[in-house]
Amino acid sequence: MFNFDEVPLPKLGLTGLDGVLSEEELAIQDVTHRFAEEVMRPIGEKLDKMDPQDVVAEGSPLWDYIAKMDESGLLDLEAIGGMSDAEKSRIIPIIFEELAWGDCGLALTSMVLKFPAFAAYNTGKPELIERFGKLRGCWVATQPDRGSEVVDMDFTEGHPDTKQHRGNLHARIDGEELVITGQSAAWVSATPIAECALLYCQCDYGDGLYKEDGSHNYVAALVPFDLPGVSKGKPLDKMGMRALCQGEVFFDEVRIPLSYIVAGQNEAFPSFFGALTFGNMEMGISFTGVARAAYEHALAYVHERKQGGTELINHQTVRARLFKMQQKVEACRALALRAFAYNYGPNGPHLLASATSKTFVTDTCVEVTSEAIQLLGGNGLTKEYPVEKLFRDARTAQIADGENNVLGLKSATWLSKEYKNRVGL
Ligand SMILES: Cc1cc2nc3c(=O)[nH]c(=O)nc-3n(C[C@H](O)[C@H](O)[C@H](O)COP(=O)(O)OP(=O)(O)OC[C@H]3O[C@@H](n4cnc5c(N)ncnc54)[C@H](O)[C@@H]3O)c2cc1C
Q1: Is residue 249 part of a domain?
Q2: Atom 16 of ligand 1 has which residue's CA nearest to it?
Q3: Is residue 214 predicted with pLDDT exceeding 90?
Q4: Which of 272, 301, 339, 404 could cysteine-pair with 359, CB 3.0–4.6 Å?
Q5: Same domain, 107 and 159
Q6: Tally of domains within the chain
Q7: Is residue 253, in this structure, part of any structural domain at all?
Q8: In angstroms, what is the span from residue 362 Cα to ligand 1's centroid?
Q9: Does residue 341 lie within any of the structural domains?
Q10: Mapping DSSP to helix (H, G, I), strand (E, B) and coil, where does residue 174 land?
Q11: Which pLDDT tens digit goes with each residue over 12-69?
């Protein structure tokens, strides 16, 4: 039983039904929120309306954002790396919910720019940390003919008697060098502004591209973009997350030392699995932030707009719809935080946890942002109001970092395999 002397108003935290947050966590949340509101929202809105070429051009507000994010120290790799797992599971989601509440395209830009540096630090090798630790990076994994197949690493979702597509990007060992030829998909995030890549692709170690079971030999390597043979395509024009620039990168017999390989023949798939597990986990909390932003806009609007003789909020059906939105935002956060707790806990990490969160949150975020448009009526459809952008951003996230249905298929396959293993089938 809980005891009350009178029925109080609910006391809500910045994100809603906040439980216990330490003073440090509250301070981080506050600083990140102010950065998101004062720096990210205005820049994100501008970039959303710009031509993709202009987004990455000299003088674009994107560069201002990158400089301010660096100055803020909010995503300092050494500081994050120095946290305990328990701290990471609580602090990383606080930061990313606020950043994506500000602008999810910019939040993902900041994450992906650090992927190669993160991989370099993970190796602990001073040579790689020195070479890649400060470079802006991207994550090259998908190719024109290999989209979901990249996510389906072990090809559990392929048709019987078929094998992974040969793809468009290949590496081979040549003496003391790795030689890379081909191209990435146009979907690689931050390519137009990247100085290097964490690159995953099929690799011939001397015995061909395929293993006996039809899966690929694979490699993960850090590749600087200032080498002969590297070129880039035009920035991609897409419906949502327009602040996140994307584009192809082409490799023409690009040679890197073998020491730039961060995961070889037997480690490359697990390494990709680890990157995707982190990416999906982060998408779950980020799009909780996007859903929350849409809910907050709708909440404010229905207290101002009058129809039917009164403010919209006074209509019972409107209140019911708002409550459903708030409930969905809370459900998103609960699941996103559960994935963080699992991944940094004794049983994790696993992509199953991250994909459970990413797919639910991004699907739910589409529902919440769509309902926000509906509550704003015609205004919701115009670029004068922020919710149509949030809807486009949410819709894009259902395909980014693995298309949701394919992530669902992979997850179901793991659930079945785990069950069979547990009961001895
Ligand atoms: C915003 C954004 C950011 C991205 N960032 C990056 C990045 O940084 N680096 C990178 O490498 N890539 C990136 N991607 C690419 C992304 O990972 C792919 O778009 C995604 O994996 C889907 O691949 P695809 O677009 O080729 O679709 P396809 O694989 O062609 O899928 C098309 C449809 O077919 C269905 N389908 C496919 N395979 C199966 C199957 N086996 N069984 C049943 N249905 C199936 C899917 O469900 C989907 O609906 C990004 C994409 C977006 C949208």
Answers
A1: yes
A2: 400
A3: no
A4: 404
A5: no
A6: 3
A7: yes
A8: 15
A9: yes
A10: strand
A11: 999 999 999 999 999 999 999 999 999 999 999 999 999 999 999 999 999 999 999 9
